[in-house]
Amino acid sequence: MMVLVPGDPLRPRRPDEHFAAEAAAARGAALEVAVIDHDAFVRGGDHAAAVARVPAGRDAVYRGWMLRTEEYAALATALAARDVVLRTSAEQYRRGHELPGWYATVQAATPETVWTQGAERSDFDRACAVLRSGPAVLRDYTKSMKHHWHEAAFIHDVADSDTAWRVASRFQQLRADDFTGGFVLRRFESFTGAEARTWWIGGVCWLVTAHPDTPGEQPPADLDPTAVAPLIAELGLPFVTADLVRHTDGRWRLVEIGDGQVSDRPATTPADALITALHTAAG
Which residues form the ATP-grasp domain (predicted)? Predict the structure, then answer.
């Protein structure tokens, strides 16, 4: 298995500083590491040149910055021209990265959710009508703006269509060109404590960590990811993360799934813990 990481923008032959520890851990585990030009896929550069330093004829796992689905597909195509196969295909990446790809499978364990295709007001109003009334949390297919909670994430009542649309408009303004897919409305549920991030490789939970937003708050001892294991296994995806948080009624709820290649590792989890999990799972 080879690990691909983005290059440093100023020193493109070196790993980006954010992923340097994982690159070093991979080399320490006798894994091959190659650097790619992430920006070429995001900004429309030369894709062949972006992967020119990747040795041919390998299978690979990417650990890097988030890519849109079409950008990841372009990366997979450029690598395939060098006979390099990503362990997560472009279609698998889409299903793990975008909420509509995973919601139906885990519906029983996650808040009720509806979404639009695109950003038209009429479609947004119809989505609100499905939830009928009550509070909701807004996001798009890949990301929320939870750090702008009151202005661009939390909708007090989906039945108040004008106020809800103001939140949606502000969300789209803040996301700008990063807005992905459409609006997603998730019924608000009351949670307590910090989220925990679980890391799944081949449908098996290999690692439980703090969430990157709260790296100092370690998961409680009673967190048992086996409760969602059948759902994650049913997804059939090679490498994903699942974020769990405790509901005020005591249940653990699944609030996010992401492709593991672009899921951030909390600063309190050593890089070699993740690399060891990937290496061991690969056999």
Answer: 134-278
